[in-house]
Amino acid sequence: MNTSLVGRQLELTDAMKVHIQSAIETLKKYNLDIISVRVVVSPDEKKGFIVEFSINIAHKNTIVVKQDDKDMYAAVDLAVERAKKVLRRYHDKITDYQVEKDSGDDSIEEFDEIIPMELELYKPLAHEDAVEVLKDSKRDFLVYNDYEDSVKVLIKNKDDIVKVDIEDEKSLTIESALEKIKSENKSLMIFIDESGRTRVLHKIRNSLFGLY
User: Fold this and answer.
1) What is the mean predicted confidence (pLDDT) over 13-29?
2) Which long-range CB contacts under 8 A does 140-143 form with residues at least 24 apart?
3) Where are the domains of the chain?
4) Which helix (H) or strand (E) holds 190?
């Protein structure tokens, strides 16, 4: 598999290249004939970073996934998760087609989807101010930055508002965090990703999740 990493109006650091290359390696587990993967990273004044994955698979249309995020590493992770869903569909179709045909099973498998979410409040907030903002809103939780530029989460708990802490100090991939929130049947969790950034994953509805 040939790989090409390109920075447009941006010089990719060694750390960026290692992260992107590691993400590409995870695509191999589906045992598909991937000929080449091209990743283009470019800065964007409003969105932060735009990452584009172009995955060329033998005898298939090229898969193109574009993802933006304020954090380049997060954009890469989200793009890879979306690409994995497509590859998993290809893999399952190839390996399960004959079984489904023989059994007459026409059911459609439901895939999880993660969509990037942006903070509504860009200016830092003190805890007391964040509590008031959540009280005055109709939302069940609030994600914001404090004055130390740390991501914090508040949730409404009956008549009170409480802070949500990081459950595990160990870093998690977005895929691992998704599996955890599903297995533990939670609606919201806060975790540290592989780049050391605090992330918030929450369930919007069945198989649809938002990621701050």
Assistant:
1) 94
2) 141/188, 141/202, 143/117, 143/119, 143/200, 143/212
3) 2-110, 116-211
4) strand 188-192
Strand partners, 66: 52
pLDDT tens column, 187-201:
888 888 777 778 888
Query: Torsion over CA of 188, 191, 197 and 202, rounded to 10 degrees?
Result: -10
CA distances from 63 to 17, 69, 80, 188, 208 (A): 21, 20, 11, 31, 21
> To 10 degrees, the CA torsion angle through 93, 95, 101, 102?
-170
Q: Identity (one letter) of the amino acid at 48?
A: G
Topology of domain 2-110 in CATH is Double Stranded RNA Binding Domain (3.30.160)
In this structure, the chain runs to a length of 212
pLDDT digits 0-9 by tens, 81-95: 989 888 888 777 766
Bridge partner residues of 64 (DSSP):
54
* Distance in angstroms (rounded) separating the CA atoms of residues 12 and 149: 25
Pairing state between β 2-7 and 34-44: parallel
Does domain 116-211 match CATH 3.10.580? yes
